[in-house]
Task: structure prediction
Amino acid sequence: MKRQPILLSAALVLFIAVNFFPFFWILLSSLKPSTQLFAYHPPLWPRAFSWENYRAIFAERHFQVNILNSLIVAGGASFFCVALGSMAAYALARLAFRGKSLLLGSILVISLFPPVALVSPLFLFFRQAGLINTYAALILSYLTFALPLTIWLLTAFFRQVPWELEDAARLDGAGTWQVFWHISLPLAAPGVFTAAILTFIYCWNEFLFALAFTTNDQSRTIPVAIVMFSGYHTTPWGQILAAVTVVTVPVALMVLILQRRIVSGLTAGALKG
Amino acid sequence: MAAITLTGITKIYADGTVAVQDLNLTVAEGEFLVLVGPSGCGKTSVLRCVAGLETPTSGTIEIRGRVVNDLPPQDRDLAMVFQTFALYPHMTVFDNLAFGLKMRRLPKDELEQRVQWVAAKLGLTEHLQKKPRQLSGGEQQRVALGRALVRQPQAFLMDEPLSNLDAALRVKMRGEIMKLQRELGVTVLYVTHDQTEALTMGDRVAVLHQGRLQQVAPARELYEHPATQFVAGFIGSPAMNFLRARLVRGPEGLTLKLAGQDVPLSDDLLKQHPLLQQHTDQEIIVGFRPEHLKEPQDTTPGPGILTFRGEVDLVETTGPVNYVHVSLPAEPSTPLLASLEADQPLMTGQTLDLTVDLQHLHFFDQETGRAL
Result:
């Protein structure tokens, strides 16, 4: 095996330590009873482990409802994003029509609007449509922000699928939809995965729209719910840290497992395979 | 009934490129027709028009008497083999072969049976569960062929299917494709830029140049009686020698002034090339093949023999035959190429006599390139 230069390894260890420290601090603190958490010199390692914070968020605050909300909203948005985005991207990659680059450009411009500027008009719109406190409001607003990236990413992927494969499929008797479904989409799968995961993470963490378009505990998503833990007089830090741990671990695990896919997805098009 | 009939096909692309001009061509039932020409001559455009992947600007395409101009490719019932093989990389060999049948909703047991038949025929049975990238180039080529064969289509279109293979494999697959075609009696329209491939494989060969059909004929006839100077130069390897000449009326009848010599033309020759008479006092192009140039000791001297004396520029050795480049003092800009048996050593710079039988001369109109 090739020997790693010592300096480089040391730098890597330092980098990882610095980056992971906040997460470990959150994890360890969430397991401390409040006496240790609010001590003048809080211990790095809990002197006694306590599951009280975790019990409280699920038993008293019904945090599982918020997790379910987030799963539905993020999952739904990712699904529709990939379904619509892949069709749009396929058309943009394959069809020759006037004003194509202008269209691609304007799609990107949509994602440049600052979300803050859109919150009020969207709120009025959703209230008028009776969509406040519904999944639809969040899924719709997330779609508008996630679709441009998805379309750009997938357009690049579909462009990489050789024309001849589609020609071959058409001569084999496949119509446009069948070519898309059986040939182009499977070959763009790494891009589809990447787009779905990025969209999921974006929606999982989104705060502003979720705060504006939900008004009761039953319809809130995780980030908003966590903020709402704070009362007028107290901020239950232990519970907040426990909630953060609960929602970070699954996403971190998912990204770790799928990171090969994401990396190959993000760098595809840079080099010819 | 002809399998494929093209009538007046013209293809002009959106950018104004004229790819094919007024092409008329028929492929008979069970025929192996090769469309050959240099790259950019429009041969692939023709094939893509027949396949339905391009729409001809004008003209009609018939398959077994039915006009298919308005049919999309999936409804034309043709199979195509691509230069890049175009195997579906995410499917196994079995699924690649079965894809066309699945699209046509063939019952499962019949599909299975047909795929197994083709796999056995092409020696792919043991590879059925592999992905294309696990196969060698030759095996991938067989899968591409199999995908076409399994469908049992009206006709096969092949777009330079062998040009991605190495030389040895190309010769082998050439034989296999020919054997399969004879055995199954299928109709093939085959596109290539390789004249050797065209001559060896085709029942008939159609030569295309700058979008225009030059000649359609069996290989032998293309070689012996090229209809245009382009065909003469394109078919045959190494390429034919061309010299400028002038036809004049001399004391012994019609005489060819060629490379500083006066060559009287016999009545027999004029009978074979009646159009020569009309070109008296005009410049024409004379062509003869390198393999028809001989050394004097191998020739019986006589009136029908033309002799060139020149200087050896370069000798290329290929084994049994040497390609000898000879420059003539009278025509320094167009050196002759002779393929001579490699039985005696030739030195660069030495003087060499070469003879050619007048029977082997081809005459072309200088302007139109038509054979005279």
The first strand of chain B starts at residue 4 and ends at 12. The interface with chain A takes residues 51-53, 72-74, 76, 78-80, 82-84, 86, 88-90, 99-100, 103-104, 147, 151 of chain B (CB under 8 Å). The longest helix of chain B spans residues 167-184.
